[in-house]
Amino acid sequence: MSNTNWKQYFDKKAETHGAAVQSSDYFNEESFFMQRDNTLRWLGEVKGKEVLDAGCGVGAFSEPLVQHNTVYGVDFSVKSLEFAAARGLKTMSEDLTALPFEKGKFDVVLCIGVIQLIEQYEDVIKELARVTKPGGTLLIQTLNRSSVQRKLLKLFEKSKKFDRMYAMNELKQLYVKYGFEQIEFLHIYHPFKFVTKSSGEGMLSDMFCTSFAIKGRKKR
Ligand SMILES: C[S@@+](CC[C@H](N)C(=O)[O-])C[C@H]1O[C@@H](n2cnc3c(N)ncnc32)[C@H](O)[C@@H]1O
Questions:
Q1: Residue 93 CA from chain centroid, whole number
Q2: In the chain, domain spans
């Protein structure tokens, strides 16, 4: 789908499901909370920081960070942003390929479930890296291209919903290219309720995790 179609798609979802996690296309609430809890725990304590939730949707993923931080939420779905604002995010309607923030503004940048929708994903990663403070963290969560389950599902797919999926190493190379170090992975195995961690590729996690998160520290 093109960018305009995705914008309309998520506006419509927010009109139908309101603040619920279905607006952000999660399989169900259980799957959303399992991913959010594990990913935020893995991110570690965040207090008194400037946080960017890039592609925040209705703001449900970064909501736990709002109480102790300033959380900016950027998304091109204006309808979704209404619900993100109600959750306490400072919202801005923008395209992620050109962010209206100065270099190095954010201590923590999150981009959850977004880059699989974006053809110009490298432009987005470059922008996210630009606005991450030296010593700050960039955490991206997306779909694992090498997953056996996803390969099987693809065989039965009637229409191609997602434009892209990613190999873990592909994103690691971009993290290195845009100045990150201490790169780590969280492997997520949907619909099972467990995750594993690693600092790189491993045969089993590569084959079986359905999604993964990658985080790295911007070099000082
Ligand atoms: C699957 S939802 C995930 C929402 C949220 N991150 C979460 O995990 O709950 C993807 C979001 O990315 C937004 N998005 C996709 N492409 C975008 C772009 N180029 N610029 C801004 N937002 C975009 C969509 O509008 C949608 O709200």
A1: 17
A2: 3-218
Question: Is 80 touching ligand 1 by the criterion CB < 6 Å?
Answer: yes
Mean pLDDT of the chain: 93
- Using most ligand atoms within 8 A of CB, pick from 16, 66, 114 the residue to mutate for ligand 1: 114
- Beta strands 195-198 and 180-188, pairing class: antiparallel
Question: Looking up tokens 């960017």, which residue turns up?
Answer: 52
Structure tokens at 218: 């911007």
Tell me the CATH class for 3-218: alpha beta
59 lines ligand 1 (CB under 6 A): no
Name the stretches of the chain with pLDDT < 70: 157-163, 201
Q: Nearest residue CA, atom 13 of ligand 1?
A: 55
Residue 179's pLDDT is 98
Q: Dump pLDDT digits (tens) for 145-184.
A: 888 887 787 777 666 566 689 999 999 999 999 999 999 9
- Kindly report the protein residue whose alpha carbon is nearest to atom 2 of ligand 1: 24
Nearest residue (CA) to ligand 1, atom 11 = 55
**What is the per-residue pLDDT across 194-208, written as a single tens digit (0 to 9) for each?**
899 988 767 777 888
| Residue count (the chain) | 220
- What's the pLDDT at 204? 73
